[in-house]
Design goal:
Elements: H1 2-25, H2 27-31, H3 37-49, H4 58-75, H5 90-103, H6 113-124
Helix pairs in contact: 3-5, 3-6, 4-5, 5-6
Length: about 130
């Protein structure tokens, strides 16, 4: 029985040690996923100015925040913070949120892009009470 337990510990070590090393080695790149408001604003301005609307994360980021919010509201796990019209195009949504981000004080743009986008959406698209 002791031999079996020793073998299981060795197998766990063989499996988990490389995973741990990979995670530690990639810790720097994992933290690189954070984006602040200034970085989002730069992405969105580039998207608006581009003739071809490809290879830019701005529209997916903003519409993703809006869509996740709607999903959480529909599941009953979150209250309605904003009401984006169903007829609004993604390009128009990007334009409006970008305009709102441009009005922010530069020091506010150091905050995370998620929060700033949510704040803009709530300000731009209040739900009628």
């Amino acid at each position: 029985m002791k031999l079996l337990l020793d073998i299981m510990r060795i197998v766990k070590t063989i499996i988990y040690l490389p995973l741990l090393l990979v995670l530690l080695a990639n810790a720097q790149s994992l933290s690189a996923g954070y984006m602040n408001g200034g970085e989002l604003l730069n992405q969105c301005m580039a998207y608006i100015d581009a003739e071809q609307k490809t290879d830019n994360l701005c529209p997916a980021f903003i519409s993703g925040i809006a869509n996740v919010h709607n999903t959480l509201v529909n599941w009953g796990g979150h209250r309605q913070e904003w009401c984006v019209p169903d007829t609004l195009s993604v390009d128009r949504l990007v334009s409006l949120v970008t305009g709102d981000l441009m009005k922010q004080a530069p020091q506010a743009l150091i905050h995370d892009a998620n929060s700033l986008t949510a704040y803009s959406l709530a300000k731009l698209f209040p739900c009628s009470q």
